[in-house]
Structure formats: C-alpha cells, structure tokens
Amino acid sequence: MSVLDLPDLALECILEKVPPEGLCHLASVCSSLRERCMSDHLWERHLKQKWGGIIGAAAYREWQWHIALRKDSRLFNQAKQKGLVSYLSRLWPVSVIVGPNLGAGDKGNNLPPIDSIMYWYLALESGKFWFPAQVYNRENGHVGFMLSCYDAELSYDPRTDTFHARYPPHGRMAVAIETGVTWDRLRAPLVDTPAHDLHISECFELP
C-alpha cells in the first residue's frame, strides 16, 4: 500500500502538515503528487503563516503586475524559469526539482505555474521579488528616525533571514537602501495609499 492509496481526505491532512521544502520533494515523486503538492490551498497556508504579516494588498497588486509582465515576455520561459531552477537548486538537489526521470529539456515543465501561490512563495523566498511594505525605526536606531514607520520596497535575503529595504527619495535625498532589516521591524501598510499621492477630500466643500 502506498500513500496514494489513502483516502483523499487522509492524504490532504498529511500534506497540510508538510513544510514547504517537503512539498517540493514530494512534488518530484510522481505526477499525481506533483499536482497535489503544488495546489494553491496548501501553499496559501504557508504564505499566510510566514509572509502574512508583511504582505498586504499593495504587495498583491505588485505581484499581479509582475505576473502580467512575465506572461507577456517572450524570454520568460528561457530566462526566468532558469533563474527559479537556479534558486531552488540552492535549497534542494536539482534532481528533486526536475525529477529523476526528466531530461534537461523538461525542467521548465516541472516548475509551478507562474500564477500559482507556490510560485509567489518561492519568488518571495528567492529575494528576486521586491514588494511594498513598511519599516519601523528606519536605519535601526538612528536618532532621526526613532519611533517612525516608513514606506519601503523590500527584498528578502534567504542567507541571513533578513531584508533589504529600499526607501523612496525625499526632496533632494537620493534613494536610501538599508540591509539586515529584521522581521520584527516590518509590517504590511495599514493604509493602502502611497504617501505622495494627492488626497482629495470632501470635508471642506462649501454647501
């Protein structure tokens, strides 16, 4: 009896307890497990658990825009998928990613769909995707930024489990980049409006 002989509900309960790297391993076993292990409902839980505190509506829109660009790009299947395989190979053996029975020309077929939650999760983990969020205490202790919260674009560094933060320019100040930003200093934007957008209010209209 194999794991695939289990009732669907029992198998789903098992897969829900498997961590992301385990799902990637199982996805290379056979086509049936591949389909199950790449399903959105499994990866949505992992996405919310690890990234839910700093991923907001603005980050989701940025990802949708990113997907649209990649789908329109003729070079996506060659360059971008190759880059994802390269990232995954640093976490798990290439044989796990492409599968033991796949040739070099089939690597792209074993990658998750670009519009899947699994792909978004792996893109965040790779650090290749920059997304909007907010950073507490900019420059981590600089007296001019204490008790502050600044808009920034973030990129994850999987080697250090920290982030690079790219702050927008203010006045004559150039774009500032901070490295080593820890998870506890980050949050999703509470107000989904860029700081420099003009707000049109009806509060001061005359009757």
Give a verbal description of the structure:
Pfam families: F-box (PF00646). The protein is an alpha+beta fold. The chain has helices at 8-16, 20-26, 31-37, 40-51, 57-72, 76-91, 94-98, 117-126, and strands at 131-136, 149-157, 162-167, 176-181, 186-187. It has a 5-stranded antiparallel sheet with strand order 4-3-2-1-5. The longest helix is centred in the N-terminal third of the chain and has 16 residues, at 57-72. The protein starts with 7 loop residues before the first helix and ends in a 20-residue tail after the last strand.
Mean pLDDT across every amino acid position: 77
Give the % helix.
25-40%
Major β-sheet strand ordering? 4-3-2-1-5
Structural class: alpha+beta
Q: Low-confidence spans: pLDDT under 50, at least 5 residues?
A: 91-108
Discrete helix count: 8
| Main sheet: strands, sense, barrel | 5 strands, antiparallel
Count of distinct strands: 5
Q: Which overall shape is indicated by the principal axes computed on the Cα atoms?
A: elongated
Q: Helix and strand succession?
A: HHHHHHHHEEEEE
Ends apart, CA distance between termini? 77 Å
What number of structural domains do the residues give?
Answer: 2
Strand content: 5-15%
Output the radius of gyration: 21 Å
Protein name: F-Box
Organism: Ipomoea batatas (Sweet potato)
